[in-house]
Amino acid sequence: MAAPRSFLWSRAVFLTLLTGFVLLPVYVMVSSSLKPLADVSGKFQWIPSGLTLTPYRDIWKTVPLADYFVNSLVVAGAATVCSVVIAVFAAYAVSRYAFRGKRVFTVTVLSTQMFPGILFLLPLFLIYVNIGNATGIALFGSRGGLILTYMTFSLPFSIWMLIGYFDSVPRDLDEAAKVDGCGPLGALFRVIVPAAVPGIVAVAVYAFMTAWGEVLFASVMTNDTTRTLAVGLQGYASQNDVYWNQVMAASLVVSVPVVAGFLLLQRFLVTGLTAGAVK
């Protein structure tokens, strides 16, 4: 049965408006990043009178953007790898084995998502400072401390998501692997992990994006040498002026790794988010 013509027209209008709503901020960012500062500071012009690539050159000089970029890659990458590795082992244990306190563990993992992150800011700050004073291990103001901080947010969601995904993998695969001589770890890495690649990729993307764009903890837990991109963008605002064209240019440059990774892993991400929902 063919759809009514009114439905087709309504759908076309709705999708056009939605596309314009999504692309409008992108156009403003791109056009503003190609304008001189005087044009950006004045009345906004939909069609730029003059284009320049100077903001893309100056963003590396106004602030040490390259250093911030490296810090963000190291922190987000390490937090992602650690979260995925720990979540794989924890989710496999919960999914495949019965042990005392299993239900309490899963409920506790899920309940951590109910609290806003700002509640953990002061406790983590005090813990890091006291550890540094007692042991000399500098967690506050270091990349390692920020990695641990981001893991506290990404790990619960990662474990909970992988539990549902591992539950959807047939247990017959584990039995077949044991018949072939594999132990628990052999079955995990040779059978379960390859079958759960979409879910693991989805968890990795979530953990990376959470760490890449986080601002609150990065602004408190870092210093001038460990500052990340999300906080470093504030350096384009001086006491007298804000370099809006450089802010827009830097924002686009910062978004490139996340957007490129999302486009490359989109197929795995969609599969991983939906496959564990139905057993």
UniProtKB/TrEMBL annotation:
<comment type="similarity">
    <text>Belongs to the binding-protein-dependent transport system permease family.</text>
</comment>
<keyword id="KW-0472">Membrane</keyword>
<feature type="domain" description="ABC transmembrane type-1">
    <location>
        <begin position="69"/>
        <end position="265"/>
    </location>
</feature>
<feature type="transmembrane region" description="Helical">
    <location>
        <begin position="12"/>
        <end position="30"/>
    </location>
</feature>
<keyword id="KW-0813">Transport</keyword>
<keyword id="KW-1133">Transmembrane helix</keyword>
<keyword id="KW-0812">Transmembrane</keyword>
<feature type="transmembrane region" description="Helical">
    <location>
        <begin position="147"/>
        <end position="166"/>
    </location>
</feature>
<dbReference type="Pfam" id="PF00528">
    <property type="entry name" value="BPD_transp_1"/>
</dbReference>
<keyword id="KW-1003">Cell membrane</keyword>
<feature type="transmembrane region" description="Helical">
    <location>
        <begin position="68"/>
        <end position="92"/>
    </location>
</feature>
<feature type="transmembrane region" description="Helical">
    <location>
        <begin position="104"/>
        <end position="127"/>
    </location>
</feature>
<dbReference type="InterPro" id="IPR035906">
    <property type="entry name" value="MetI-like_sf"/>
</dbReference>
<feature type="transmembrane region" description="Helical">
    <location>
        <begin position="243"/>
        <end position="265"/>
    </location>
</feature>
<dbReference type="InterPro" id="IPR050901">
    <property type="entry name" value="BP-dep_ABC_trans_perm"/>
</dbReference>
<feature type="transmembrane region" description="Helical">
    <location>
        <begin position="187"/>
        <end position="209"/>
    </location>
</feature>
<dbReference type="InterPro" id="IPR000515">
    <property type="entry name" value="MetI-like"/>
</dbReference>
<protein>
    <submittedName>
        <fullName>Carbohydrate ABC transporter permease</fullName>
    </submittedName>
</protein>
